[in-house]
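Posting for a labmate who doesn't have an account.
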Amino acid sequence: HLKNEHDGKVGRPTILTCQEESLLVHALKKLGEWGFGIDREAVKCIVMDYLNSAGRADAFCHGSPGSEWMLGFETCNDITPSALMDINSLQQPVDEELVSLLPAFCL
């Protein structure tokens, strides 16, 4: 009889660590604030590129995150694709001084 004897997590282990997921959510929200909208497919590509570079390319059964993983990621982190795009930032006037600095970062 094992009722109330299980003290571990149930289900498949998470793909990203808590720290990795937190950093990803922060980066995605910042991109939205800065006016760089990102969709679900782009998020999945970013995650897969990260996992490939970390040597965990086989983390997903079908080779990449699926729609169920994406919905779980959004739910667990209280984000949606529309929340990742700050519409107000797109309506702000362009800061010409900031634009003049961009070539320095492209070197």
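Reply:
Got it, the structure tokens are right above this. The helical segments are 18-33, 40-53, 67-77, 87-90, 96-105.
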